[in-house]
Amino acid sequence: MKLMRLPVLFLLAFLCSGCSSNEQATYEPLALPTAEEEEAAKAYNEQMSKRPGA
């Protein structure tokens, strides 16, 4: 039974070691929304805040 635990522990250690690795993560810089995007978002929010059928 102890021989079965060792491969399972190695597998879990391998899987967990990759979970926290951020070496391949890329982050795009955020750009402020343009005036056109802000107006589209405002119109969308107004439309979605209305009750259906109103």
What report would you give on this structure?
61% of the residues lie in helices and 0% in strands. With 54 residues, it is an all-alpha fold. It has one domain (5-50). It is elongated and about 70 Å long. The termini are far apart.
Work out the helix count.
2
Structural class: mainly alpha
Structurally, the number of domains stands at 1
Gap from first CA to last CA = 68 Å
Tally the beta strands.
Answer: 0
Round the Cα radius of gyration to an integer and report it. Answer: 25 Å
Largest sheet properties: none
Key traits:
single chain; 54 residues; mainly alpha; 2 helices; 0% strand; elongated; signal; Secreted protein
Helix-strand blueprint:
Blueprint: H1 2-19, H2 35-49
Summarize, please.
The chain has 2 helices and no strands. The chain is an all-alpha fold.
